[in-house]
Structures are given as structure tokens and as C-alpha cells.
Design brief:
The chain has 207 residues and is of the alpha/beta class. It contains seven helices and eight strands, in the order H-E-E-H-H-E-H-H-E-E-H-E-E-H-E. The chain has a single domain, classed as 3-Layer(aba) Sandwich (Rossmann fold).
Length: 207
């Protein structure tokens, strides 16, 4: 639509709170705003890989709404909560020119603060020595790609002992699980994981 970054119909596609399994977290599951298919996939990839940074605003608003709806589910976390953006490989950061999940993490932290939960962004996860582009890999390859390569550095700088991990796309969940394991292993308890979009199991064979 003219003068619209995302039309109202596309915005509504991101208005959900779809649960997905996430072992090792306090809630046992994570939540995504949308299913990763069709217009959602097109919009997220345009934002992520093709510098459509105008979507920063709508996607931040989407993550804000998701977080606000889940605040009652979180219970009473040990405040403040560390909002941890999922890491990207150095080559991906260089290619994109930015750390796009950091934008989403800031929106989540702000939403938590608005609802009385102390929160701060804590970019303490790093990914090392990953060269293959994840979009070209199937589930087993993705798991091998990131296994043991996501590290929690400077966990002592976390603003608290509870965390929420934030990513853009969850396909097999291998990256999120590695993030959870790295943080838990550093003494930071992960409450849940949040994402813009999640690939349902039935869609995972779709190119």
C-alpha cells in the first residue's frame, strides 16, 4: 500500500503468540509473533537480508505487543531481566552491516519496563567460526553448524540472573537451544525465548 511499510493485513499476520518447544527454559517453551511462511517470510527476509530497515518500527511494535501479552505468564522474575539478542556470525554481521536482533531485544526490554519488570539488553552471546549461511542448510546441518559455537561471554555483566533470548526466525530451534544452553551453563536462568517468526514442523521441508 502507498506510504505503508507493512499494510494492515500484513501487520495482522504478526499479531499472534505462537508457542514452540524450548527445553531448558523456565516456561519450557518460546513464543513467536507469526508463522514463517508467505508474506511473513518475505517481509522478514527483506528486513533481515536486504536492508529494509523501515521495518524496524513495525517489527519492534510487534515484539512489544508479544511481550506485553506474555508478562502475566512470566510470573515474578527475579528482577532485572537480561534481554539477550541471539548472536550472528561475524560474516553475517559484516554482510548485513548490523546486528538486527539487537533492535528486537531493545523493544522487548522496553516493553518489560513499561509493565513494571526491570529489564536491560545484555548482548553477551557470541557465535564463532560459522561460515555457512543457515538458510541453505537442513535441520541436521543447522544443528551441527552452531553446536558448541555459541558462547556466553561476560555473563557476570548480566543485570540479573534471569534472561529472555530474542531472535528473528526460529526454524529447527537449534540456534535457540544453543543460546539457552550457553546461558544456563553460565549461571543465567532463561525464562523463555521470543521471536518474530517460527517455522511449523509441517513447513520445515519447504525451500
Amino acid at each position: 500500500m502507498p506510504d505503508a511499510v507493512l499494510c494492515p493485513r500484513c501487520r495482522m499476520l504478526f499479531a499472534g503468540a505462537h508457542p514452540f518447544p524450548m527445553p531448558g527454559t523456565g516456561l519450557g517453551e518460546g513464543y513467536a509473533c507469526a508463522w514463517y511462511r508467505g508474506e511473513v517470510r518475505h517481509a522478514v527476509l527483506a528486513w533481515k537480508d536486504h536492508r529494509d530497515e523501515e521495518c524496524d518500527g513495525p517489527f519492534s511494535a510487534t515484539m512489544t505487543a508479544l511481550t506485553a501479552g506474555l508478562v502475566p505468564v512470566f510470573g515474578r522474575p527475579r528482577s532485572p531481566v537480561a534481554v539477550v539478542p541471539a548472536p550472528s556470525s561475524p560474516s553475517s554481521l559484516y554482510r548485513r552491516g548490523r546486528w538486527q536482533t539487537l533492535t528486537l531485544a531493545r523493544a522487548v526490554a522496553e516493553a518489560l519496563r513499561r509493565h513494571g519488570v526491570g529489564a536491560a539488553v545484555a548482548p553477551i552471546l557470541t557465535m564463532r567460526h560459522v561460515r555457512d549461511r543457515a538458510v541453505q542448510l537442513h535441520g541436521g546441518q543447522r544443528s551441527g553448524r552452531v553446536h558448541g559455537r555459541i558462547l556466553a561471554e561476560h555473563a557476570e555483566r548480566c543485570p540479573g540472573t534471569d534472561a529472555i533470548v530474542v531472535d528473528d526466525i526460529v526454524t529447527t530451534g537449534s540456534t535457540m537451544r544453543q543460546c539457552v544452553e550457553a546461558l544456563n551453563g553460565s549461571g543465567v536462568r532463561v525464562l523463555t525465548c521470543l521471536a518474530l517468526a517460527y517455522t511449523p514442523q509441517s513447513d520445515r521441508t519447504t525451500p
